From TrEMBL:
This is Biotin carboxylase N-terminal domain-containing protein. Its cofactor is biotin. Residues 1-451 form the Biotin carboxylation domain. SMART domains: Biotin_carb_C (SM00878).
Length: 666
């Protein structure tokens, strides 16, 4: 192995490049049209253009990836995670082309890639599994019969699924048919296979996974567990190791089962066996036949480079350690920063400002007490609708769990991401929640506490942005728009569709004074800093603001651990010109493709009634009416690509507003 082609993009491609270069390997990056200027393209020794924008036209094209290997002289392929990383046919095609495959054998991928097949193999090895049905009869009637036998609640899963796609929780029989149809649609779009299974659902378990590693000499070990219970849309956002609920005895039991399953499948390389943990009982979920997004947590805890291990095993080398030689130190937690708002709706656009916390390491173990930030971000990076919304991963490694939490809270406060929404503040709220701090967070954590967390964030945002808004608008107008007048001037600011009126004047250079929306006098000191931030001072306290200007006299503001959008509404009439129309139209909340339209012109709508389904960043999102209305006009059709703010349908006037309510289903 001399030259490695990385069949992936973004932060995982950069991660693989680092370890490959450390081993003296040459690297080849591949890229789609939107990724032509991406960081992984610049850092590899060579780069090959796949063409196309969508995954289906680039990173999922086996023929183009093999052509890239031939054209660049690569003799090995690393798939990263996602895309074709768990595609047995791609692995076989790589081997048939005479290249080394950095991953498990195709037969092992086939045996474990299907949840149904993996479950059958696990049961033969004595691995605990939940009762369920995974037969060839895929008729809704058969699933209904089997669900009655298993007992509700049940979980519908895509047989070939992963990453939370194609999963639906069903609590009563009336919900089953719709869940089957939705899960099948998402599975077909995401994996090309619509086969489903159902199994008994545990409503409040933990999600605990075991990292396994095997070589070609028949050795197989585990590298401990990761707790991934904090999730939204069945997708992980916080992972940690060790699990607060796993002791040495339970770790050995789970590890023995994970290793037994890997051995039975003839596994080679890195893999992850995922379990649901209910008290001291655990049940197999699936086995992921690839490197995991959260592998840095294990690297921090063990001091090992898992990508280096993958490359060495692919070269035929034995595992560097035996099971008894594996050591764990401290506690590690990873956060997934995503381009999404507090309702988990994905967003696309340009990152207008990016700054990472000081002292962060990249793609390598940061050491005990250190901070690692794996990302592919820079100011100006475009977040595309064609890929998932992951921006990067922050990993803290501390001597204790409490130390890791505090380190991450500081790091989040110091991470600046402006230009599009992110879950930065929501992650901090999760970390700081008493239930998470106590190590008691289970899979329903976000579902149970999300509304309260969002309410707290909104209150903090309103309080923090109140003094920042007048300062930003005043500075943006100066000097041309300011007149030499000692009188205060009216200023109207919009935040989350609420407009507040201020009265503002200059009380000397760098000092604003006036009256707030409640009529109370205020005085605010302003000092622009050399790094572009604005230092505010009031009543003896100081804080800094980072802001970027957006179109239409708008600003994205970040301060005091919160993010918000402000707009200068001073030049608008007292009644917004668009308010009447806004109540009669439904606009797209993000980029996506219309999968289904469930209503027709003239149809009367009830509150909560589904209107249409939009697919964005690999997930289906149901948009529903929030109040009674009537459909006046449909402006989109299935298969159509839509952009944020695009009008999807018009509602009859004189009805209560039917603003979009988004229910993300995965």
């Amino acid at each position: 192995m001399k030259r490695l082609l990385i069949a992936n993009r973004g932060e995982i491609a950069r991660r693989i490049i680092r370890s490959a270069h450390a081993l003296g390997l040459e690297t080849v990056a591949v890229f789609s049209e939107p990724d032509a200027q991406a960081l992984h393209v610049r850092e590899a020794g060579q780069a090959f253009a796949l063409g196309g924008s969508r995954s289906a036209d680039s990173y999922l094209r086996v023929d183009r990836l093999l052509a890239a290997a031939r054209a660049t002289g690569a003799d090995a392929v690393h798939p990263g995670y996602g895309f074709l990383s768990e595609n047995a046919d791609f692995a076989q095609a790589v081997l048939d082309a005479g290249l080394a495959w950095v991953g498990p054998p195709p037969d092992a991928i086939r045996a474990l890639g299907s949840k149904a097949a993996a479950k059958a193999l696990a049961q033969s090895q004595g691995v605990p599994c939940l009762p369920g049905y995974a037969g060839e009869d895929q008729r809704p009637e058969r699933f209904a019969t089997e669900a009655e036998r298993i007992g509700y609640p049940v979980m519908v899963k895509a047989v070939a699924g992963g990453g939370g796609r194609g999963m639906r929780l069903v609590t009563q029989p009336a919900e089953l048919a719709a869940a089957l149809a939705s899960a099948r649609s998402e599975a077909l779009a995401g994996f090309g296979c619509g086969d489903l299974l159902i199994e008994r659902a545990l409503l409040a378990p933990r999600h605990v996974e075991l990292q396994v590693f095997a070589d070609t000499q028949g050795h197989c070990i585990h590298l401990g567990e990761r707790d991934c219970s904090v999730q939204r849309r069945h997708q992980k956002i916080i992972e940690e190791a060790p699990s607060p609920a796993v002791d040495a005895a339970l770790r050995q039991r789970m590890g023995d089962c994970a290793v037994a399953l890997a051995r039975a499948a003839g596994y080679v390389g890195a893999g992850t066996v995922e379990f649901l943990l209910d008290g001291s009982d655990f049940y197999l979920m699936e086995m992921n036949t690839r490197l995991q997004v959260e592998h840095p947590v294990t690297e921090a805890l063990t001091g090992l480079d898992l990508v280096e291990w993958q490359l060495r095993v692919a070269r035929g080398e034995p595992l560097p350690l035996r099971q008894e030689q594996v050591r764990f130190e401290g506690h590690a937690i990873e956060l997934r920063l995503c381009a999404e708002d507090e309702h988990f709706r994905p967003h696309t656009g340009r990152l207008l400002h990016f700054s990472e916390p000081p002292g962060a390491r990249h793609f390598e173990r940061a050491g005990l007490g250190g901070l690692r930030f794996d990302h592919a971000l820079a100011t100006g990076t475009e977040v595309s609708p064609h890929y998932d919304p992951l921006l990067g991963k922050l990993i803290a490694h501390g001597p204790t769990r409490e130390a890791a939490i505090e380190h991450l809270l500081r790091a989040l406060a110091q991470t600046e991401l402006l230009g599009l929404p992110s879950n930065r503040a929501f992650l901090a709220a999760c970390l700081d929640h008493p239930e998470f701090r106590a190590g008691q967070a289970l899979i329903p954590f976000v579902q149970q506490h999300g509304p309260a967390l969002r309410a707290g964030l909104l209150a903090a945002e309103q309080q923090a942005l109140a003094p920042a808004g007048p300062a930003l608008v005043w500075l943006a107008r100066a000097p041309a728009a300011q007149l030499a007048c000692p009188l205060e001037r009216p200023l109207r600011l919009r935040h989350r569709d609420q407009v507040q009126s201020w009265s503002v004047g200059e009380a000397g250079q760098g000092v604003l004074q006036g009256r707030d929306p409640q009529g109370q006098p205020f005085q605010l000191g302003l000092q622009p800093l050399a790094d572009g931030r604005l230092l505010l001072s009031q009543d003896g306290r100081q804080w800094s603001v980072r802001a970027v200007a957006l179109a239409g006299r708008r600003w994205h503001v970040q301060l005091a651990g919160v993010d918000g959008w402000l707009e200068d509404a001073s030049f608008e009439p007292l009644r917004r010109a668009g308010e009447g129309e806004a109540a009669r139209v439904l606009r797209a909340p993000f980029n996506g493709r219309v999968l289904r339209v469930d209503v027709a012109p003239g149809q009367a709508l009830l509150a909560g009634q589904p209107l249409l389904v939009i697919e964005s960043m690999k997930l289906e999102h149901v948009i529903a009416a929030s109040a009674p209305a009537q459909v006046a006009e449909l402006l989109v059709a299935p298969g159509q690509q839509v952009a944020p703010g695009q009008v999807l349908l018009r509602l009859a006037p004189a009805q209560p507003a039917a603003a979009p309510v988004l229910e993300s289903v995965a």
